[in-house]
Design a protein that fits this description.
With about 80 residues, the protein is α+β, with helices and mostly antiparallel strands. The protein has three helices and two strands; from the N terminus they run αβαβα. Keywords: Amino-acid transport, Transport.
């Protein structure tokens, strides 16, 4: 949360977040995503990389979901 607060001090228009919920308690994750929701409501653009797909998809206007590439068939 401190890293997010420090990033917000410069009043960015775009905020890039890499796994903001990693290793946090569920209650803290809920708080962070509420803050992110408030930031987007104020017009900030977020670029979010997150393994917690449910939270990320509930927050996003657009999403790209990445998965493992299947092995190519043998010839």
């Amino acid at each position: 949360m401190l890293a997010i607060a420090r990033a917000l001090m410069s009043r960015p228009r775009l905020l890039l977040l890499d796994e903001p919920s990693l290793g946090l308690a569920p209650l803290v994750v809920k708080q962070i995503f509420q803050i992110l929701r408030e930031l987007t409501a104020q017009g900030m653009t977020l670029f979010l990389v997150e393994q917690n797909a449910r939270h990320a998809l509930n927050l996003s206007d657009r999403a790209y979901v990445m998965g493992e590439r299947p092995d190519p068939p043998e010839r």
